[in-house]
Amino acid sequence: MKTTSVMIVGVGGQGSLLASKLLGRLLVDCGYDVKVSEVHGMSQRGGSVVTYVRFGEKVYSPIVTEGEADVIIAFEKLEAARYSSFLKKDGTIIANTQSIDPMPVIIGAAEYPEGVLSELTDKGLSVEALDALALAEQAGSSKAVNIVLMGRAAKYFGIPYEKWISAIENTVKPKFVEMNIKAFDLGYNS
């Protein structure tokens, strides 16, 4: 069995660490050897956050290098562009269409680039874009963007739906389980 490499990228506060915890728990429960590594730039100040999740029969390192990611789950479209060089030739980026202004844009030193995701597809990359924020709000909370995206990404892992639901039930706080399952379902069926 080959090792599969996943990157979860976003901006501080979007729940990428919960998403990596959910994915890691799911994969361990399915019997894979799993390595997870988190890189927290200025995450508490809205900076870039990236998590590497690698799984397979035997995994020796958690780090994903350029050109190695099978799937990149991007919680924000500029983050999808920032990490696109890590994608394998036959890999896929699952990207939220949400824009979150980085500090240079906030202070007026730069403008948020237009057509970020179109540029990636123009380069020949496989990009699945969805408005995860709208789906999360439909589920009951804008904070559920992470779980919506995990629902959309689920098809790339070949793991039965029921196991995902069990992982959600065992990872999120009990009072948020129902809302997170709804968010997962909205992403899963998008």
Q: Could you characterize the architecture of this molecule?
A:
- By secondary structure, this protein is an alpha/beta fold.
- The protein has one domain: Pyruvate-ferredoxin Oxidoreductase, domain 3 (3-Layer(aba) Sandwich), CATH 3.40.920.
- The protein is built from eight helices and six strands.
- It has a six-stranded mixed β-sheet, with helices on both faces.
- The model has no long low-confidence stretch (mean pLDDT 92).
Strand fraction equals 15-25%
Question: What structural class do helix, strand and pairing data support?
Answer: alpha/beta
Sheet with most strands: 6 strands, mixed
Fraction of helical residues: 25-40%
Number of structural domains:
1
Task: Describe this protein with a few key phrases.
190 residues, six-stranded mixed beta sheet, Pyruvate-ferredoxin Oxidoreductase, domain 3, alpha/beta, 24% strand
Chart the SSEs and their pairings.
Blueprint: E1 4-11, H1 16-29, E2 33-40, E3 48-56, E4 69-74, H2 77-82, E5 87-96, H3 103-106, H4 116-122, E6 126-130, H5 132-139, H6 145-153, H7 161-171, H8 177-188
Parallel strand pairs: 1-4, 4-5, 5-6
Antiparallel strand pairs: 1-3, 2-3
Helix pairs in contact: 1-7, 5-6, 5-8, 6-8
